[in-house]
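WARN no homologs supplied; continuing
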Amino acid sequence: MVHADLERCLDLIRASTAGLSPELAAQPVDGRWSVAEIVEHLKLAYSGTAKGLERCLEKGTPLAKPTTLRQQVRAFVVVTLGRLPEGVQAPKHIVPAGGVALAELLDRVKGDLNRLDAASVLVRDRFGSAKVLDHPILGGFSIDQWMRFHWIHTRHHDKQIRSRRQALERVTAL
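OK structure emitted
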């Protein structure tokens, strides 16, 4: 991978899930997504952005629309300050379906991160630092903003993965 943020995403997911049994990875905690479902959610986010960037290339133009003031403020908090608020519902297209084994998801994550990386290089070469694609909540992002967003989003979910993993391992140790 070329982009350091995407490489860090992969490293973080691998580190937080290393050695976790398939059974524990698939088990929800307190009615929330399982570790595997969180990884699936991240995979869907990466592949969704890659598809959007590929559409920019196919159409030959950035697809970002003008952002509202509210989107600009939210994007600043997330991308510049690195704070992803708790309790925001995931857009429907990146809600995990479940039922996919963690090992398979990890392979898919790597493939989707590579696809995202390749598309981002081509889009940056073609459109420079322009806002190229809309985030469904935060508005239009440039390639650099997309890469930073994915790193912050992955870090956010890494905390959830580690918390769920600790809870599951405590219960199984009893």
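The first strand starts at residue 133 and ends at 135.
OK
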